[in-house]
Amino acid sequence: MSPLESLRIATRALRVNKLRSALTVLGIVVGVGAVVCMVSVGAGAQAEVSEKIRTLGANLLLVMPGARNSGGARLESGTQPTLTEEDAASIRRELVDVQVAAPLLSRSIPLVAANKNWVTVVAGINADYLVAREWQVASGRSFTSDEIASGAKVAIVGSVIVEELFNGHAGPGETFRIGNVPFTVIGVLDKKGLGAVGRSQDDVVFIPLSAAKSRVLGAVRGTTREALDFISIKVSDATAMPEIERLIEALLRQRHRIRAEAPSDFRIENPADILFARGAAVRLLGSLLIAVAAVSLVVGGISIMNIMLVSVTERTREIGLRMAVGASRRDIRWQFLIEALILALMGGLVGAVSGAAAAVAIAWKAGWPILISPWAIVLACGFAGFIGISFGLYPAHRAARLDPIVALRFE
Q: How many angstroms from the chain centroid is the CA of residue 89?
């Protein structure tokens, strides 16, 4: 008997009991659907982490101010205004593997251009900050040494500022006000997209740090204009980052004259570690749900085996009749194996579509990134087919071993 003939007979047998066939594949549907959904969510999380690390810049460390004590109570992180430009310069000067050490001071301030206004983050930086963040200037130029030193009233703006303040047509030479201070645009940044906290990185204005301190921001942290928000440090070699963290801590503790038993008044963070931890948490959750889905697939396989055994019993006379008219034991075995395989693949296809739809619903409702991989769908359907064949072997073998005479006498 040809494979097509076996397929036709198996399909006809399944269509006789449509509802029973549909209920049989439910376990496979749930298992494959869960696998496709969670693999899509996990892949989306991984892609998001990779993109965030790319936009942050590679081999980046952040030195943040620590917490201040007030009346015996420890205040929130960043309230101890101890980091200064000289700290950044000292880190750059003393540590060989530090490529750049870029200080930053920022605050939200209203911007005005003609009849438009927009409130955004204005950050004072030096030219090293764009190097640390691997951030290119799409049009125009970066700050010169003279502009940094003299506190010139020039600015580099993000693409969101161009859209909101200049109707998307801003270029070098445009003027606008930060608060009441006029500035001239000298460059527009490449787009970076959303940052780690979900805020657009392109909604920003960079000005020389000296101009930020003396003309715009003043004393943002405490009463001193020397205090910074943080220092971005780009390390030349990724493998040297743990050692660089240790050296930075030792250097800053020495500079801040902190006693051996006293806690540091700053902290050092690796932003990539935070993103990796978040991605790992999502992947762990996905792995747990995939394990549960695997149990569901096994239960679906057991359901297929159960129904196939019932089918062999119900169709014993049919099997005997087919053997009597010339069907071989191999034909009978293939017929039942194909029936089990069709049931599993039907469940796999329906489950794959359901899983993809569930992933899209999660992305729409919860805002999670997803990445539906065709390979995940093919792999899940392939595993469902393997389950169908594995659990269909015994019923098929049992049908093929029937004695034709006994089968014909079966009532």
A: 35
